[in-house]
Write a structure and sequence with these properties.
The chain contains 5 helices and no strands. Helix 2 runs antiparallel to helix 4 and helix 2 runs parallel beside helix 5. Helices cover 77% and strands 0% of the residues. It has one domain.
């Protein structure tokens, strides 16, 4: 069995699990999109830190983190339940290529 046939069968199985009733097992498909999006948002802040973070209150930083995590949690659940598996695969590959491109574009290995 070729690699592409195996991958196609796995994607079909995952799609059947996604749409079956009763509710399917979770594969956390939203995390495959959430992690590179958060990385792409964080990389510029890591390379060029804003001065406002030096004077920000710990409560404001904590509240911002909780708000962002909550929004991404709900968006991930909606994404994994509403978007077909094959479309998720394409979107996730594009999303993962952006942080990889940013690492080389911003030259993170240089100080």
């Amino acid at each position: 069995m070729g690699l592409f046939i195996f991958l196609a069968k796995q994607l079909d199985r995952l799609e059947r699990e996604r749409t079956e009733v009763p509710h399917r097992k979770r594969h956390y498909g939203g995390m495959w999109l959430g992690v590179p999006v958060l990385s792409a948002l964080a990389f510029p802040c890591i390379k060029y830190p804003p001065q406002a973070l030096d004077t920000a209150s710990p409560f404001a930083l904590w509240a911002g983190f909780v708000l962002i995590a909550t929004v991404f949690g709900f968006a991930g659940v909606i994404y994994q339940n509403r978007v077909p598996i094959k479309a998720q695969l394409v979107i996730d590959l594009i999303a993962w290529s952006v942080p990889i491109w940013m690492i080389f574009h911003f030259r993170f290995w240089e100080p």
